[in-house]
Design goal:
Length: about 120
């Protein structure tokens, strides 16, 4: 009699586990928007020195946590017109501030659109 009861409880437990597994999978499928999301990394941001997305440990200069470099005005790339009116192309705005006037886009040879 004891072996029959033990067998009965093992089968009952197996069925119960299958039901829980099926309900769990169904819950995950129906609520997948709760599972998918953004992953946040601690101490990731933009380093002002070279306008590179990096970690706080890899940035010896001003660090902007949680910011992407393309979101920061000082990381715009464009033409830096120096004090002798030469256009230094592909300059970061932050590197141009002390050297001359920064322009984000050259429209044509005669007209410069300023940032």
């Amino acid at each position: 009699m004891k072996t029959e009861n033990k067998k009965f409880y093992e089968v009952l437990l197996g069925i119960l586990l299958i039901i829980i597994a099926v309900l769990s999978v169904q819950l995950i499928i129906n609520n997948k928007e709760l599972i998918i999301g953004k992953v946040a990394y601690a101490n990731i941001g933009c380093c002002d020195l070279n306008c590179q997305d990096t970690s706080l440990n890899n940035c010896p200069n001003n660090f902007n946590p949680g910011k992407k470099c393309n979101e920061l005005p000082q990381c715009n790339i464009g033409c830096c017109v120096d004090f002798e009116d030469y256009c230094l192309d592909n300059y970061l705005k932050s590197n141009c501030d002390n050297k001359g006037m920064f322009h984000s886009t050259i429209v044509n040879a005669n007209s410069i659109q300023t940032f």
